[in-house]
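Q: Hi! First time asking for a complex rather than a single chain. Here are the components, and I think there are two in total. Is that enough to go on?
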Amino acid sequence: MSNEDIFNGNWVAWMKSQAGLETDIVISSRIRLARNLQGMPFPFLMNAETGNKSMQAITEAWQNSENDALSSMDMITFDQVPALDRHILVEKHLISPEHGLSEDPYRGLLLSKDGSIAIMINEEDHLRIQVLLPGLQMEQCYELAQTMDDELEKRLNFAFDEQRGYLTSCPTNVGTGMRASVMLHLPAIAISGQRNRIFQNINQLGMTVRGLYGEGTDIIGNYVQLSNQITLGQTENEIITNLGIISRQIVEQETILRRSLQEEMRYQLEDRVGRAYGILTNARVMNSNEALTLLSDVRLGVDLGIIEGISPQLINQLVVAIKPAHLQKRAGGEMEAFMRDVKRAEVIKEILLKSSR
Amino acid sequence: MFCDDCKQNPATVHLTQMLNGKKIDMHLCPECAAKKGLMLFTNDKQFSIPNFLGSFLGSEFNLKDMQTMANPKTCNNCGMSFADIRQTGKLGCSECYEAFDSELEPTLRRIHGNSKHLGKIPLRGGERVFLKKEMDELKLELQKAIREESYEQAAEIRDKIKELEKVINEEGSR
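A: Yes, that's all I need. Here is the structure of the assembled complex.
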């Protein structure tokens, strides 16, 4: 796998489904560490001169690293990458939407071949080390992120203060600079109307709930992103452990509700899943929200064995493949919204029917 | 429910804060909330994260914050003032944390319920922190020696400081 595949295909490491990692409910785990260079203005204050200086220091740290995992990554600066490709990275969750808007030569991304490690350069902070793995793998994500952090720190002076910890552009990230999150697919909790009850007290636990694309996005397709809110005054291990415990509790709830749906509402459930599949494989025009909502039902059907012959990871791919940039990449050019809806219906049909044949 | 402040209008703004691990609930009417700089949903201004953080970063809740409003101090390294920080919701550089240490203290407590880092210490940076601490101690000792007019001792400390400076600079350029 190479970066070319990440730009041209639908696949990236976090989409894999694997036994023992709760991938039927926990789609992916992510760790993000924010790090900054001592004394250098934070990216939002940067001009070309300071931006290039910071980029140069980071480039040298990457090039000279003796760690294979770091040195084998590819550097992508945003002046080399067209807007559509940057958008592809956003839709695959490898960079933030804000970062994708930039065309500056001093903003960019260090990306591992399989897309499991993505280090944003000069986003809100000078470095944002992200590790994204499938299923519930908080510890593994953290360990990898930790290694990248230590390797980079060998050649970079990170801004750190004994009292305040790692210093970040936004005071909401100071301390560990760490945001740990899990992407959960919770259709049974949604169907049974339990979502508000389950998440209403989550803030009191120092955590927060968001939609598919992070801050400020709605919950669509029953995808819920759970992450820690507090970064100061807790150790990294505490944060990971807490998030792991809560995630497992939510997984348990979802599992129980899925089972009771199957036992008590079998016909309604199968009807819902079947209708979703029917629409997805026959529609000619489909907007993004409708597609995500129906794909959530099909995914539930796949997880519960109601639909056979479709793999869960295919649905993960499909969720990304129907996003605007991926559709336009596939079509080979820009498309207006209506034509995208037509193309979306076509792509869904093609991928679903091909796999179940 | 009536406003906690004016006790006249109905409370429509409900705020929960974590302060030193304690939960504080507030119920305010839009007018009183606006006075406290908390009104996020005014007619023409949409809710935005910088505004929201701006309200975290100093409101009239706290006398200390009010004093800093009149404070023209800026960060020596990047030139940001605390008013700039409040407006953008962001600090300008790592040195801002030191320049606005006391102003940030209540803010950090409001956001995190805490203001002291307990997590990871960087490998090399940790060493720097240690050296910096040693430097601060030496400087204090130097002042004391001068105050006590023990100049011989002061000269010794000064040499130590020079030595340490060299080490720190080498560290920094590595």
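A: Chain B has three domains: 1-39, 45-118, 126-173. Let me know if you'd like any chain examined more closely.
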